[in-house]
Amino acid sequence: MSASDIARILVTGAAGQVGCALVAALGRRYGPANVVAADIKFPPSFSESSPPRVRLDVTDREALAQVVQAHRIDTIYHLAAILSANGEKNPQACWQVNVGGLLNVLEVAREYSLRRVICPSSMAVFGPDAPRQGTPQDTLLHPTTMYGVTKVSGELLGEYYFRRYGVDVRGIRYPGIISSEARPGGGTTDYAVEIFYAALQERRYTCFLREDTVLPMIYMPDVIEGTIQLAEADPARLTRHTDYNMTGFSIAPRDLAAEIQRHLPDFEIAYAPDARQAIADSWPAAIDDRVARRDWGWRPRHDLAAMTADMLAKLAARQRAGSL
Length: 324
Description:
Elements: E1 9-12, H1 17-30, E2 35-39, E3 53-55, H2 61-70, E4 75-78, H3 84-89, H4 91-111, E5 116-118, E6 121-122, H5 146-165, E7 169-170, E8 172-174, E9 176-178, H6 191-201, E10 204-207, E11 215-219, H7 220-232, E12 244-245, E13 249-251, H8 253-263, E14 268-271, H9 276-281, H10 290-296, H11 304-320
Parallel strand pairs: 1-2, 1-4, 2-3, 4-5, 5-7, 6-8, 8-12, 9-11, 10-14
Antiparallel strand pairs: 11-13
């Protein structure tokens, strides 16, 4: 699928961490008028000059169908979700939004013969019985969080709708995401974003994970590039549908702190693990994404050093402008 093939795109969860960056990238690629940003609410920071936007609760199937019809949508990037830490606070709502919302998207896609649904999954599908090093594409999926349960369910739902109804559903298992565009939204890897704001504003940070907790991470520009690459990939090349492993680099909090200290030598970090530590301990330390590299040419562009330098430069510029 090329840029000229898609008429209209809907992005659910558009005000979230990934959504903000994805809406902007899709607008640049396909034209802002062809991208509709949808979320249950939009923060003041969401630009009024962004592509068209609508308020939408994805658990309301009728409202979703109305948006699809009104805006002549043929492709949905479905990002609306409750993340891991917040999902443990309210597991019932996590199921309703993550599974119920996806089921609505898939049903609308089936009913209106949409071209494609892109629905990211997560490394949260893996549990403590999966190999922690080089976690393979196919392994046991026994997550210990409601978020992980919903993501396994989502992968299976997408696969079912592909095989039963021919809906072209595609998904990536995102690792922890580091972004300069939006504040984190209740995930277990949020420390890797919070630490940059604290380093610039206070020169100190207290991390909610142990210093040696290694987790797979990825920088937002790579997330966006990889997601669009998968969406545009020739279906004949794809051997998976909803569950491609993808990763950038694996780090522990102490690795990130040391890299920040190369730029800000007076930065200090302390550690006070909380309930999120148990979630992190159940996740992989390093993911094997060779299938994505083979099938659709996935390659990350940023390692720890490149990501850190870029994050600090972007956030420092916003700090100088008074918008951090």
